[in-house]
Specification:
The complex is a heterodimer of chains A (about 230) and B (about 180). Chain A has helices at about 15-20, 25-30, 40-50, 50-65, 80-110, 115-155, 170-185, 195-230. Chain A is mainly α. Chain A folds into 2 domains: about 1-75, Orthogonal Bundle (SP0561-like), CATH 1.10.3910; about 80-230. The termini of chain A are far apart. Residues about 155-170 of chain A have low confidence and may be disordered. Chain B has about 180 residues and is an alpha/beta fold. Chain B has 2 domains: about 5-105, Response regulator (Rossmann fold), CATH 3.40.50; about 115-175, Arc Repressor Mutant, subunit A, CATH 1.10.10.10. Chain B contains 9 helices and 5 strands, in the order βαβαβααββααααα. Chain B has a 5-stranded parallel sheet with strand order 2-1-3-4-5. In chain B, strand 1, helix 1 (about 15-25) and strand 2 (about 30-35) form a beta-alpha-beta unit. In chain B, helix 6 crosses helix 8 and helix 7 crosses helix 8 (about 145-160). Chain B is elongated. The model of chain B is unreliable at about 110-115 (pLDDT under 50). Classes of the chains: A mainly alpha (about 230), B alpha/beta (about 180). The interface of A and B includes residues 116, 124 and 170 of A.
């Protein structure tokens, strides 16, 4: 697969999307729809009132696993990242998770009723879903408000963990990996091939999106929050 | 790979239906509940992979069952050990033990089953992990060191591609290693 060059202010949005279509997730969450014409990153930022340097950093963090932002610019707003991550969480909650659930239900309804494997996989997915929804709930109720408050007052606030504390040490990411392995390696019995692929692709997309956004959480928002908390 | 042909001939209809249901539910395999022993005797012997019967039928038709005893499961009351190479299933055992017994037998007919990737010891460890035990409890139960438990767990994850405890539990349920929740 062709590697994507680092994004600059002059890079055309269309070039980025054609090279890596999943970046549409990020653009949509910033209010940019397909039909981008010859809009560049810089012009899109100007149009939407987003900090150009921060948007470039977000895109590069999302797209490049080995990318670490060199610095947190003085113009960077934690609010921008929190708003983006809130949109991301909304997308998981309202679109991506329900879509996978629907695909799964449909797959089970079209498969051999004597095959209990798919039903158990759906149960496992529902467990993972609940964990992800708990994490989203924690973001909304605790972490994001703390970040916004820290930015507003720039006061010292206790650092909040990135993940909700609990007794369950398996992460959402681990469980998504495991569910994908179950389908790819261990699937048995009669099943609808195309519906199975629909479930698999939707799970793989969700996993990739979560991993990419974890980088934005861990490499951008968390250091910003730490810096704000120690001002 | 074709599914194993399983025939059930038990005097107790409810037991026959129960075994059939367990096999279908946990292994996704269809069973044929024969109406009479004559029906079983008339079936081509080579076409049957497993016959589930009771001691009465077994004794009355030794000439039929003895030559194929490795493919016959005898459901008996309070059976503790296989005797004289007869494979027994204790009808009073708990669900997990019955499923485990069936898995041992059906596993012989499912060489491509991924659970055969695991050694017996790894399967034992997986069963205990899936039951919610921590490493120390597993080590104590199996009389092995914690390091050995860790090695088994590492191998299980490498072989199955599953690393979360929850994922391993669901895998164990899918393969009849533990009973579904």
């Amino acid at each position: 697969m062709q590697s994507i060059p680092l994004i600059q202010s002059e890079t055309k949005l269309s070039d980025i999307v054609i090279a890596e279509p999943t970046v549409v997730n990020v653009l949509n969450r910033f209010g940019i729809d397909l039909g981008v014409g010859d809009l560049t990153v810089g012009r899109a930022c100007h149009k939407l009132g987003i900090d150009n340097e921060l948007f470039v950093v977000i895109l590069n963090t999302y797209l490049h696993e080995s990318y670490f932002p060199e610095r947190i610019g003085p113009s960077f707003k934690a609010t921008t990242i929190v708003n983006y991550l809130e949109q991301t969480n909304n997308s998981y909650e309202r679109f991506q998770i329900p879509t996978i659930e629907r695909h799964f239900q449909f797959l089970i309804s079209k498969s051999d009723p004597g095959n209990n494997n798919l039903g158990l996989m759906l149960q496992f997915f529902m467990e993972m879903k609940q964990q992800l929804l708990d994490r989203i709930g924690h973001d909304r109720a605790k972490w994001f408000p703390q970040v916004l408050e820290a930015e507003r007052t720039a006061s010292g606030l206790p650092e909040s963990p990135l993940r909700q504390q609990g007794t369950d040490t398996d992460t959402v990411e681990d469980k998504l990996d495991d569910l994908i392995s179950m389908i790819v390696i261990h699937l048995k019995g009669d099943h609808d091939r195309y519906l199975t692929l629909a479930v698999l692709f939707a799970l793989a997309n969700l996993k990739k999106d979560i991993m990419q956004n974890n980088r934005i959480r861990n490499r951008l928002l968390r250091p910003m929050f730490q810096a704000l908390s120690h001002r | 790979m074709s599914q194993p042909q399983i025939v059930i001939i038990l005097h107790n209809t409810l037991s026959a239906l129960g075994v059939s249901h367990l096999i279908s539910d946990h292994f996704g395999l269809a069973c044929h509940c024969a109406a009479s022993i004559d029906e079983v005797l008339s079936l081509p012997a080579d076409g049957i992979d497993l016959v589930v019967t009771d001691p009465q039928h077994y004794v009355e038709h030794l000439r039929y069952f003895l030559p194929r005893k490795s493919r016959v499961l005898v459901v008996a009351d309070r059976a503790t050990n296989d005797s004289q190479d007869i494979i027994l299933l204790d009808s009073h055992a708990d669900t997990e033990q019955i499923i485990d017994r069936l898995r041992q037998l059906l596993g012989n007919h499912e060489q491509e089953n991924t659970s055969s990737l695991l050694s017996q010891r790894e399967t034992d460890v997986l069963r205990l992990v899936a039951s919610g035990m921590i490493n120390k409890e597993i080590a104590d139960r199996l009389h092995i060191s914690i390091n050995t438990v860790l090695t088994h767990r590492k191998n299980i994850t490498a072989k199955l591609g599953i690393k979360s405890v929850s994922g391993l539990s669901f895998y164990a349920m899918m393969n009849g290693i533990i009973a579904p929740r």
